[in-house]
Amino acid sequence: MTDAAKVPDFSMPHDFSTPHEVLDAVRNAHRVVLATHSPMDGDGLGCGLALMRALKHAGKAVTFVTEAPVPRAYGFLPGASDIIQLRPSQPVPDFDLLLGLDAGEEDRLGRAFSQRPTRSVVLNIDHHVSNPRYGDVVWVDDKAASTGEQVYQLLVDLDMLDQTMAQALLVSLVTDTGRFLYSSTTSRTLRIAAALVDAGASLDHIQLNLYGARPLPYLRLRGRAVESIVFHDEGRIAVLTVPEGFGADLGVDVEDIKDLVDITVGVEGVVVAALVRGLPGGGTKVSLRSKDDRADVANLASRHGGGGHIRASGFSSADDPEITVAALLPGMRELAVAAGR
Ligand SMILES: [Mn+2]
Question: pTM, whole model, 2 decimals?
Answer without folding.
Answer: 0.86
